[in-house]
Amino acid sequence: MKGEEQRTTRVELYTDGACSGNPGPGGWAFILRDARTGKEREESGAERETTNNRMELLAVIRGLQALKRPCQVTLYADSKYVGEGLSSWMAGWKQRGWKRKDGNGWKPVKNVELWQELDRLAKMHLIVFRHVAGHSGHPENERCDQLAVAAYRELIGQRVD
C-alpha cells in the first residue's frame, strides 16, 4: 500500500456518539492516544438536530482529521454501524454509486456525505476496527460517552455535572 512505510506512528482512537431522541440534540467525542508516548487528545462537539448514527460517524471523522500524517490507527467504538460500514458495506456502496438496496430498488446511502468523508480519510491511514461493548465499563468508551453527552447538553443549555 502506498505510504505504508510512512505509517509508523501507531495511534489508538476511541470514539462515541450520543443523542437525546433520534433525531434530537446529539454529541460526539474522541480520545486519540499515541501508542508509543501515551500522549492523549480529547475533543467533543454537538449538533442541535441529528441522529445517533451521524454522531458515531462524526466522532470517527473528527478523530481522523486530528491526525497530522498517515498513521496505523486502531479504532475502538461501540458502533456496529461504523464497524460494518468500514469493513463490509462501504465497498459495495462505492461500486453502486453510494446507493443501497431498499426493497426492489435502490436508495441513496444514509449519511452519504459523512461516509464519503470517512472513506477519504480512511485512505490516508491503515485502520483496524475493534468493537467494544457500550456502557460496559470500558474506560475510554465511558469517557467518550460522558464527553459526547456533556457536549450536547451544553449546546441545549442543560446542566452539565
Proportion of residues in helical segments: 25-40%
Q: Give the helix tally.
A: 4
Q: What is the percentage of strand-forming residues?
A: 25-35%
Distance between the termini: 46 Å
Please name the fourth-level CATH homologous superfamily: Ribonuclease H-like superfamily/Ribonuclease H
The backbone outline, from C-alpha atoms, is globular
Label the CATH architecture: 2-Layer Sandwich
Care to count the β-strands? Answer: 7
Topology (elements, then pairings):
Layout: E1 10-19, E2 24-34, E3 40-50, H1 52-65, E4 72-77, H2 80-95, E5 99-102, E6 105-108, H3 112-122, E7 126-131, H4 139-156
Parallel strand pairs: 1-4, 4-7
Antiparallel strand pairs: 1-2, 2-3, 5-6
Helix pairs in contact: 1-3
Describe this structure in words.
α1 (52-65) runs parallel beside α3 (112-122). β5 (99-102) and β6 form a beta hairpin. This protein has a five-stranded mixed sheet, sandwiched between helices. The protein has a two-stranded antiparallel sheet with strand order 5-6. The longest helix is centred in the C-terminal third of the chain and has 18 residues, at 139-156. The chain has one domain (4-156): Ribonuclease H-like superfamily/Ribonuclease H (Nucleotidyltransferase, domain 5). The protein has 161 residues and is of the alpha/beta class. The protein has four helices and seven strands; from the N terminus they run βββαβαββαβα. Mean pLDDT is 92; it is low at 1-5. It has helices spanning 52-65, 80-95, 112-122, 139-156; strands at residues 10-19, 24-34, 40-50, 72-77, 99-102, 105-108, 126-131.
